Amino acid sequence: MTFALLLTAVAGLLPFTAGHASIFHPSMWGFNVTAQTFPYDNRPVAPLINYTFDEWWFHGHLDHPPNDGDFFELPAGEPATAQVACDKGATTFFASDPGGNIQNGDDPCPGSPPAEYHTTGLSDVKGCALAITYESDVSQVQPEDFTIFSVNQTCVWTRFTDFQVPARMPACPEGGCICAFFWIHSPDSGSEQNYMNGFRCNVTGSTSNVALATPQLPRRCGADPQNDKPEASPGNCTYGAKLPFYWFQAERNNMFEGTYAPPFYNDLYNFLDGAQEDIFADSYPNGLPSPSPNSTVVPSPNLYDVAATSTPFAPSITPVFSVTSSSSVTPTPPISSSSAVTPLANSTSTASLGAATTAMCKSTLFRRRQQRRSISHGPESVADVMAPRVASHRELQDRSKLWRAF
Fold first, then answer.
1. Does a cis peptide bond (omega within 30 degrees of 0) precede residue 203?
2. Which of 271, 200, 213 is nearest to 58 (CA)?
3. Average model confidence (pLDDT) across the chain
4. Which of 209, 176, 171, 217 is nearest to 69 (CA)?
5. What pTM was estimated for this model as a whole?
6. For 233, which of 110, 111, 156, 318 is 20 to 30 Å away at the CA?
7. What pLDDT band is residue 393 in, cutting at 50, 70 and 90?
C-alpha cells in the first residue's frame, strides 16, 4: 500500500471536526452521507460553490432521503432548537457517524478554532436561516417555493442553536412540510461558499390557517460601511415574505453580489433576529410599496397582537409612512389564506411611529441576543465559549494534523 493510500485510509477513519458546518437531524436529506458516499466530498457540511443545480439543490442529496416518519418539529410561537456542527460526531446523533462521539458541550467544532467555521469571532458571525415550503413532495419543490421564517443572527457560533418559529405559522399538509437550512459566512474567513441542507419538518401547535405570502427577492438595504454605505436605506428593503439566497453557483442564482460582498441573513437584507412574523398573506393588508434606494416609504405590518420575537427593519434615519396601495398579496397553496382574525387599524403617524419602531426593534434584538446567550444549554459569555475550545484544541491537535492533509 502506498503512503498516499495509507493516508486516505486513515483519513476515512477520523472525524472531520474542522471546517464548515451544517444542521444535523435524522429528518434531513443526506443525514448518513459520508466522505466516501460520493466521488467528491459531499458531506452535509461541505460548502457549495460553482455547482450545477443538481449538485447544490438539497446539497445533491435527494437520492438520500430521511426515513419515513422522521420530522423536525416547529412549535408555533416557540423556539425550535437545532444542532449545528462541523461533524455529526459533535452532535447527539454521533452513533451513526464513522468517527464516533466527539461532543464537547456547546462547541460546534470540537478541537477547532472559530476560523474553521468561518468567523474571526462573535462579532463576525453573519447568521443562519430556516426556510419552509408547504409541499410534502420534494420532487415538486423549486427554489422559488421556499420562504425564510426564522433567522438566528449569531449562527454559526454554538452547537445548540435556537430558531424562533412565528406564532401564526399554519399547520402543514398531510405528509408534512419541507424545510431547509441556509448559511453564508463572513468573507473574512473563507471563500464564496453557500450552505443548504433540506429536511422534513412539521408545524406543531398551530392556531392559524392564514397562508404564507408569496416570497420575494431580498434586497440589500442595511448599513454597509465595508462597502462605503454607512447609512441604512429602509425604503430599499424587501418587506414581508422573502426568498433564501442562491448565490455563486453555476446555475439558478438569484443573488449576484461579488466575492467580497456576500448576502447575509441579518439586518443587511432586512432579516431581523428571530421569527419573521410579517411573512403572512395578511401581514400587510394595505399592500407593499415598490422598494427603491430613494424611497422614503416604509410599510408597517399588522402582527395581529402577536408579541414579536422579531420585527421588520428598524429605520434609524427615515420616518415610517403607512401604505395606501390597494394591491393584494397572493397566498401560496395549499393552506387557505382566509382568516377570521380582524386586522388592527394601521397607524398613520410618521416620525413618532418611526421612533417607536426603532426603539421596539432595538429592544427586541437586544433581548433576543441576551436570551440566547443565557439559555440553559449554552454558554453565558464569549469567554465561556472559547475556554473549552482552546483546551479541546490542544488535546486534539495531534489528531487534527492527520486529517488536515486532506
1. no
2. 200
3. 77
4. 176
5. 0.74
6. 156
7. very low
Count of structural domains within the chain: 1
Spatial separation of the C-alpha atoms in residues 307 and 389, rounded to whole Å: 36
Are residues 372 and 315 in contact, defined by beta-carbon separation less than 8 angstroms?
no
Q: List, for residues 157-189, the tens digit of each pLDDT value.
A: 899 999 999 999 999 999 999 999 999 977 765
Whether residue 331 contacts residue 337, with contact meaning beta carbons closer than 8 Å, is answered with yes
Of 26, 86, 31, give the one whose Cα is nearest residue 61.
Answer: 31
Interhelix angle 382-404/3-13, nearest 10 degrees: 150
- Find the domain containing 106 and state its range: 3-404
Three-class SS of the chain: CCHHHHHHHHHHHCCCCCCCCEEECCCECCCCCCCCCCCCCCCCCCCECCCCHHHHHHHHCCCCCCCCCCCEEEECCCEEEEEEECCHHHCCCHHHCCCCCCCCCCCCCCCCCHHHHCCCCHHHCCCEEEEEECCCCHHHCCHHHCEEEEEECCCCCCCEEEEECCCCCCCCCCCCEEEEEEEECCHHHCCCCEEEEEEEEEEECCCCCCCEECCECCCCCCCEHHHCECCCCHHHCCCCCECCCCECCCCCCCECCCCCCCCCCCHHHCCCCEECCCCECCCCCCCCCCCCCCCCCCCCCCCCCCCCCCCCCCCCCCCCCCCCCCCCCCECCCCCCCCCCCCCCCCCCCHHHHHHHHHHHHHHHHHHHHHHHCCCCCCCCHHHHHHHHHHHHHHHHHHHHHHHCC
Contact predicate 21/48, CB 8 Å: no
> What single letter denotes the amino acid at residue 233?
S
Partners of 150 in the β-ladder: 130, 275
> pLDDT higher for 78 or 387?
78
